[in-house]
Amino acid sequence: MKPIWIVDDDQSIRFVLERALAREEYPVRSFANPRDVVAALDSGDEPQVLVSDIRMPGGSGIDLLGAVKERYPGLPVIIMTAYSDLDSAVSAFQGGAFEYLPKPFDVPKAVELIRRAVDESLREEVGDAAQAQMPEMLGQAPAMQDVFRAIGRLSQSLVTVLITGESGSGKELVARALHKHSPRASGPFVAINTAAIPKDLLESELFGHERGAFTGAQTMRRGRFEQADGGTLFLDEIGDMPFDLQTRLLRVLSDGQFYRVGGHNPLKSNVRVIAATHQNLEERVKQGAFREDLFHRLNVIRLRLPALRERREDIPALARYFLQKSAKELGVEAKRITDAALTRLMAFDYPGNVRQLENVCHWLTVMAPAQVIEAKDLPPELLAERSVSADVPPAMAPAAPSLDAMTPPLPVPATAMPPANSAHSGGHWLLDLERESREMLEAGVPEVWDSLTRRFEAQLIHTALQITRGRRIEAAQKLGIGRNTITRKIQELGLDD
Questions:
Q1: Of 299, 320, 339, which closes a domain?
Q2: What's the predicted TM-score (pTM) here?
């Protein structure tokens, strides 16, 4: 691991942090002014985390923050500042600081903050390496791996494919992947959403029209079948296509011939058709809304895309990817996201699927107040209890109103509960813990140890504070921990919000 750099003109501050970090076995390098830091950066040295005072002779921490971010945009920088210096705190966050540390600070709190920054930095290094080799589609869930294997098997085939799945699940991405890995990859990929175009215009969009074919047709226009000649035509939401146009589409699929609107000469188009729908086409056929012969013509090979709620283990990788993508589009530094926030993201059902998750990440890029996204920064609809379905494991459910969003309640430990034979007994909490941990592990929830430990500690402290009516010293005594420990834990767990 690279060293942690401490920058402060106050020797006593440097000494205290050096000793505290040495006890945690972190490598440390200290600087008395920003100039020496910049010189070290110019020589090719790089820290794991930078901790800098804000006001020093020879330069400010804010200026140093800007210089560091130019060289290493993902490097966590902690700015030390005075309690009352609001402008400095705002400037630090606007400049991309990981966090700011008020002076005078509690040393254990400072070490814990630096530890968080180190963990985040190490995760960023792994994430950056993965980002450099980001695939066109993401998915480690078994259902998505099945889709990838199917794309591989179909890579040298020109067979018609029907993609089914809920809206926003990524059907067009699959269609593009099928085209990209097919013998027609050098040809055009043309997509049309048949549900988004008015019925009167859809025929012209698909097959083109001759000049004067209808009012407003000033020139001849090539349709999507002609545009896709030699390539792939993707017909999205095919289940919503008007019934009379289904007949024309069937004819094209049967013999490859069609007429432009108002035309008299048959045209040939060498096109591979990939269709997609969120509808149940079998049911549409039974209702008489979709031609059965067209259904069988399209349904040669069917690929079903799973909904996002069916592959929750893919949400962390997708979220980090979309945060990177949004930041690039907006020209800002990509924000990082805590494990607690990722756990909350994984608990949501996403009726809009991957598209909705992408929108959430774009919202967070714009609206989250700091560079590190906490659970409490998520949009309101993700924090609402009703947004989580009953089949989500309790370990992934939203927090109770009395606790911070990052720390949903665990069953209270036996030492804080009435005896098991009491009329008020809450049951065997260890069995509840076993059930929740098993469900989290099987669901692929990240950082299970940290998540359950945080919730356990939060529930203990919350209960003790209730019993002592908020008196922290008395609560610490009852719990058998020190005053500094309970203060630090309250801040870490967000119980003082």
A1: 299
A2: 0.53
